[in-house]
């Protein structure tokens, strides 16, 4: 092509581009005049906040919802709430996407034909139910009401409904029912409950299998307490476990046990307190060492540390209680708590509210009744037994023997698939209600969104409607009216302002010290686990018991240990992988009894040989067993058969490398570093200062602000809450599995695990380092990225032309490119319970977008901005008052939600700011030797705390 | 390539270009025509005759980013009694009776990626006319100023207001 042809071609193309680039038709932009003026104190487009309670798990954290123009935008933790004090976990942050989840059921659905559904009106649905109830009464069958954990006033309404209509209310079904722990506490303390653990008051914590950071008890509260106790009491945390979990890698020390050997360890520790429990396993060091696989030195050291601690605490839970020896472990743990003087730190006056949660034995009894054809109309509310109960129970098949099955659900599940009628439930942000996470604490659930998204109702309203139709009496107009009356009865008149202001009510409780009593020796009988491959189902920080698996955001965020995002896998130890000649992604066929599953393998360091792990949320119904002693679930599948299929799939592993390759990304094994050994200071001089002066560029000069961040790696638990908060706050696109396999994830903050140490791993939260000498800025040909006068490496999206030079030049890999348009778009696969999420975000997910952050188009680079919209908002408030932005006024989304308060943000030019004090102490900056001079500083506790004076910290 | 195709290819090429320009020219007027509003609302009558101030109806000019369009109820506060015989007011009454919101066509708008706060400008004492022109003298609102980035930055420079990109770009 010669020059003239080229120019002409350019002319044609540009002419076309002008036409194509024309604005859309005039008048398509509508400004809608509201019917009524806004309530006092609100302005259009300005955020306001409403208190409610998170319903993602039983922990019941307080939530403050950020609402703009009647649409909830983001969930934030309620500051000062007794459970979570301002933080939320990864599931809580993603909770808002459940409201807008495209997989929600939008209208009542009636079964039509073998596998079809038809949408019907509520009146028709009620008609069907009433007809079915009549039929089953004539047939003399019992109508049954099965629900998930129910707390608060809804339980009373269910009772009233059952009583008036002759339904039988069954024990509630919950996957994490703490059956074994409750049984053990009943045996030892005569209290069949799970106490609140006062970790904040301890200085030594030994957790045995308990996933205190993920699902056990109240995870946000426990994370917060662990972080505070580390800061204030110098807490030392040891985690003993038979597999490998986030807790093991985050604790100061991990003790690897042989599966099922927990009673031996506890027996040894009890002996250290001079206590022998009849029936417990032998407590002499050699035999305990043999049984547990822990060396005698480590055992002695552990016992010595436990004895030396002033306020120790031992917690057993999770997979350690879900084995054949679970009850023995739990009972011995309770005995140890008693012998070690830890009972003051077990608060049974604030026990977890388990409602009427039964055990798997109750579900077993139900399935037997159903088998015999005794079931009439079966209501199943907010729970998925067909998808989660042990496979041997065959609950899905037996369910079908009930004469008519009605599900109350928000999305399709294995249970709804077996029902005749599905009634869609409103989301908590659309409903009135209450939630009792623990005794004495009631969290308020109130409607936040102005208009319901779909034709849904709350369970309470459905029951009131049905009562109206069946008994022709209507006492309450709505469930909200019922609740108000109940609350008034409970708290007296005038309760309302305080309740809606704080979002909770807490009754003062006097903790009563439980007394331990001896237990019959036969409950302590232990059995050694059979040899051979064992599969364990692990609780999951992302999916809980599987209930969160249909939220795309939680699939987009990596699993903390493996950094796998979408899909399923089985974790295999390094030894087993060597034996089976496995590489990541090779498919394994796992079989137990009649159950078979093909899963890709992921090699997991530190996993004991012979143990394989599958995420509880992924496994679904599989051959778990029922513990005959407690009714709990046994999640250790022994004697599984493992075979390589020869096939392989690519796993979406987000981590670049499991190793730092000696580059000093994290300077030293941070968890092992002792406080006050002067190492930090030396390091700063030897490493940071040396590179400081090697610059040819002029110093950056700042006038009022230089935004900076410090991250406490000792406090960081790699739970991923910050990642979820960032996604929601900054409208980050969800790209899906295919894009992840190409390495095109969009997260602005990620957590990199490094498995370099022999006894653990290090985790590093990585976000834009907002460098002073940023390599990205210099190479942008269009000035879309530049150094902002307040130190931010700004990125102006509409100026960006997508050369990607900046991302190429960034040593931190924190710039993300929009390869496609990841903005919300409609997706046809609406009704798939676990669709493979290959497409971009679906409607109505576009609602969740934050209007203060622009949506990025295809071909644009994007990155962390330190939440510049929050800086702008704080500046707006400061300007109103005619002053500068003050410390604590700007909190980025990641720092705000962090359960362990590991992220500190502020203005480093202000010498009184926390971040400036931390920087002054000496910190580590990643790749400082490159001369980028980042503004994100990594420290390793202790950090100056706003709440505590320096002198207090000195003593700690 | 051109030699083989002959001269007509060159003519066709320029003819095509001419056609594009003509098409664009005719489309241009359509594009920049003031759109039809659901109700012919005269700012002039309200400001010049009734002597209302801007913030009598646009309640949030000094309270938030958006100035706020008056609610239908706000209109009805006066128009329940005033000029009820006018066909335009009857349109308004119909909206009110049917409980419907009015969808005004937006004239003054900035792109989605721009942050603009009325409050910051109004509390600085910048008159509405700076951006909205002589809106109080208009029977039909039209866009008097370009509201382009150049328009904003010129004013910011003259008044020593911040010109960091992050001031306006979000």
Q: What does this entry look like structurally?
A:
The complex is a heterodimer of chains A (956) and B (170). With 956 residues, chain A is an alpha/beta fold. Chain A has 30 helices and 38 strands. In chain A, the strands form 11 sheets. Chain A has a 7-stranded mixed sheet, with helices on both faces. In chain A, strands 28-21-25-22-24-23-29 form a 7-stranded mixed sheet. Chain A is globular and about 90 Å long. Chain A starts with a helix and ends with a helix. Chain B is mostly helical and 170 residues long. The chains are: A alpha/beta (956), B mainly alpha (170).
What's the topology here?
The complex is a heterodimer of chains A (956) and B (170).
Chain A: H1 3-20, E1 30-33, E2 48-53, E3 62-68, E4 71-77, H2 90-94, H3 96-99, E5 109-112, E6 116-119, H4 122-138, E7 142-147, H5 154-165, E8 167-169, H6 179-189, E9 196-197, E10 204-208, H7 219-233, E11 236-241, H8 246-250, E12 253-256, H9 262-272, H10 285-292, H11 296-308, E13 312-316, H12 326-339, E14 346-347, H13 360-371, E15 375-381, H14 385-388, H15 395-399, E16 404-409, E17 421-424, E18 433-438, E19 441-445, H16 459-471, H17 479-491, H18 496-502, E20 504-506, E21 534-538, H19 552-556, E22 570-572, H20 574-580, E23 586-592, E24 595-603, E25 611-615, H21 616-619, E26 625-626, E27 633-634, E28 636-638, E29 641-648, H22 679-692, E30 707-712, H23 721-729, H24 737-741, E31 750-754, E32 762-766, H25 775-778, E33 785-787, E34 793-795, H26 805-809, E35 816-817, E36 861-862, H27 868-880, H28 893-897, E37 903-907, H29 914-921, E38 936-939, H30 950-955
Parallel strand pairs in A: 7-8, 7-15, 10-11, 10-13, 11-12, 15-16, 16-17, 21-25, 22-24, 30-38
Antiparallel strand pairs in A: 2-3, 3-4, 5-6, 5-17, 9-14, 18-19, 19-20, 21-28, 22-25, 23-24, 23-29, 26-27, 30-37, 31-32, 33-34, 35-36
Chain B: H1 2-5, H2 7-31, H3 43-49, H4 54-57, H5 72-79, H6 87-97, E1 102-105, H7 118-123, H8 129-132, H9 149-158, H10 165-168
Helix pairs in contact in B: 5-6
């Amino acid at each position: 092509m010669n020059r003239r042809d080229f120019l002409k071609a350019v002319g044609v193309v540009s002419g076309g581009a002008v036409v194509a680039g024309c604005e859309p038709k005039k008048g398509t932009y509508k400004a809608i005049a509201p019917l009524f003026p806004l309530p006092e104190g609100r302005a259009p487009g300005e955020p306001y906040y409403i208190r409610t309670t998170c319903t993602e798990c039983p922990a019941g954290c307080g939530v403050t919802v950020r609402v703009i123009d009647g649409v909830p935008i983001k969930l934030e933790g309620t500051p000062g709430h007794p459970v979570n004090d301002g933080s939320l976990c990864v599931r809580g942050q993603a909770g808002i996407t459940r409201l807008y989840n495209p997989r929600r059921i939008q209208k009542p659905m009636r079964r039509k034909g073998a596998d079809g559904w038809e949408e019907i009106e509520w009146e028709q649905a009620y008609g069907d139910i009433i007809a079915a109830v009549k039929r089953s009464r004539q047939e003399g069958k019992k109508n049954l009401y099965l629900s998930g954990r129910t707390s608060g006033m809804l339980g009373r309404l269910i009772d009233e409904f059952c009583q008036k209509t002759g339904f039988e209310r069954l024990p509630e079904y919950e996957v994490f029912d703490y059956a074994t722990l409750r049984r053990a506490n009943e045996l030892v303390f005569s209290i069949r409950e799970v106490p609140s653990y006062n970790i904040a008051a301890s200085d030594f914590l030994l957790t045995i299998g308990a996933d205190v950071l993920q699902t056990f008890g109240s995870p946000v509260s426990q994370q917060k307490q662990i972080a505070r106790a580390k800061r204030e009491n110098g807490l030392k945390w040891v985690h003993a476990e038979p597999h490998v979990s986030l807790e093991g890698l985050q604790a100061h020390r991990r003790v690897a046990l042989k599966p099922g050997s927990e009673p031996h360890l506890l027996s040894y520790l009890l002996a250290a307190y001079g206590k022998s429990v009849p029936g417990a396993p032998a407590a002499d060091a050699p035999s305990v060492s043999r049984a547990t696989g822990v060396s005698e030195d480590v055992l002695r050291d552990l016992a010595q540390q436990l004895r030396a601690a002033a306020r120790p605490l031992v917690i057993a839970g999770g997979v350690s209680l879900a084995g054949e020896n679970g009850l023995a472990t739990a009972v011995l743990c309770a005995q140890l708590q008693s012998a070690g003087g830890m009972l003051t730190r077990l608060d049974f006056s604030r026990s977890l509210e388990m409602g009427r949660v039964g055990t798997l034995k109750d579900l077993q009894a139900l399935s037997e009744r159903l088998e015999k054809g005794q079931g009439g109309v079966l209501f199943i509310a907010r729970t998925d037994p067909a998808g989660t109960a042990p496979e041997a129970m065959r609950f899905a098949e037996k369910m079908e023997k009930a004469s008519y099955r009605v599900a109350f659900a928000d999305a399709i599940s294995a249970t709804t698939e077996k029902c005749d009628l599905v009634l869609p439930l409103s989301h908590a942000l659309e409903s009135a209600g209450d939630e009792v996470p623990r005794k004495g604490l009631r969290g308020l659930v109130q409607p936040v969104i102005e208009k319901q998204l779909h034709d849904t109702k709350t369970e309470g309203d459905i029951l009131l409607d049905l009562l109206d139709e069946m008994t022709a009496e209507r006492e309450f107009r709505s469930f909200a009216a019922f609740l108000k009356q109940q609350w008034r009865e409970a708290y007296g008149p005038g309760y309302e302002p305080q309740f809606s202001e704080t979002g909770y009510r807490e009754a003062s409780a006097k903790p009563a010290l439980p007394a331990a009593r001896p237990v019959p020796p036969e409950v302590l009988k232990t059995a050694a686990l059979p040899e051979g491959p064992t599969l364990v189902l692990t609780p999951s920080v992302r999916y809980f018991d599987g209930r969160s698996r249909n939220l795309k955001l939680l699939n987009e965020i990596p699993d903390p240990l493996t950094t796998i995002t979408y899909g399923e896998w089985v974790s295999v130890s390094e030894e087993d992988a060597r034996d089976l000649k496995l590489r990541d992604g090779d498919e394994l066929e796992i079989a137990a009894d009649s159950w078979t599953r093909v899963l890709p393998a992921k090699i997991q360091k530190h996993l004991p040989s012979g143990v394989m792990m599958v995420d509880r949320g992924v496994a679904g119904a599989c051959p778990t067993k029922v513990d005959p002693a407690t009714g709990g679930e046994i999640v250790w599948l022994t004697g599984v058969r493992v075979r390589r299929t020869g096939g392989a799939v690519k796993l979406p592993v987000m981590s670049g490398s499991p190793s730092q390759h000696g580059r000093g990304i994290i300077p030293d094994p941070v968890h092992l570093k002792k406080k006050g050994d002067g190492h930090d200071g030396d390091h700063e001089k030897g490493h940071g200062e040396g590179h400081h002066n090697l610059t040819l560029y002029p110093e950056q000069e700042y006038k009022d602000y230089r935004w900076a961040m410090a991250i406490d790696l000792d406090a960081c638990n790699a739970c991923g809450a910050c990642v979820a908060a960032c996604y929601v706050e900054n409208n980050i696109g969800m790209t899906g599995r295919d894009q992840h396999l190409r390495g095109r994830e969009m997260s602005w903050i990620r957590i990199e695990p490094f498995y370099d140490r022999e006894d653990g791993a290090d985790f590093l939260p990585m976000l834009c380092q907002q460098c002073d000498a940023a390599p990205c800025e210099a190479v942008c040909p269009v000035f879309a990225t530049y150094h902002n006068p307040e130190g931010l490496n700004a990125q102006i999206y509409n100026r960006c032309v997508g050369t990607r030079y900046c991302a190429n030049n960034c040593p931190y890999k924190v710039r993300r490119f929009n390869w496609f348009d990841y903005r919300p778009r409609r997706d046809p696969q609406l009704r798939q319970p676990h669709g493979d999420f290959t497409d971009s975000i679906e409607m109505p997910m576009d609602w969740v977008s934050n209007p203060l952050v622009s949506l990025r188009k295809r071909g644009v680079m994007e990155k962390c901005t330190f939440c510049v919209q929050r800086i702008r908002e704080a500046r707006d408030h400061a300007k109103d008052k005619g002053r500068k932005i003050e410390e604590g006024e700007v909190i980025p989304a990641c720092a705000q939600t962090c359960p362990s308060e590991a992220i500190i943000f502020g203005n480093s030019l202000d010498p009184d700011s926390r971040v400036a004090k931390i920087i002054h102490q000496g910190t580590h900056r990643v790749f400082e030797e490159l001369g980028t001079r980042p503004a994100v500083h990594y420290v390793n506790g202790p950090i100056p705390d706003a709440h505590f004076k320096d002198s207090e910290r000195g003593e700690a | 390539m051109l030699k083989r195709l002959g001269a007509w290819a060159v003519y066709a090429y320029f003819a095509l270009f001419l056609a594009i320009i003509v098409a664009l020219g005719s489309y241009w007027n359509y594009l920049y025509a003031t759109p039809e509003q659901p109700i012919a609302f005269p700012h002039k009558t309200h400001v010049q005759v009734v002597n209302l101030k801007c913030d009598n109806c646009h309640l949030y000019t000094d309270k938030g980013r958006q100035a706020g369009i008056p609610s239908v109820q706000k209109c009805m506060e006066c128009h329940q009694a005033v000029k009820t015989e006018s066909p335009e007011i009857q349109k308004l009454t119909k909206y009110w009776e049917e409980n419907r919101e009015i969808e005004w066509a937006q004239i003054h708008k900035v792109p989605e990626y721009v942050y603009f706060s009325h409050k910051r400008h109004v509390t600085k004492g910048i008159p509405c006319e700076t951006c909205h022109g002589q809106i109080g003298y208009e029977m039909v609102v039209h866009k008097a100023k370009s509201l382009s980035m150049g328009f904003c930055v010129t004013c910011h420079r003259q008044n020593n207001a911040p010109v960091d990109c992050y001031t306006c770009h979000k």
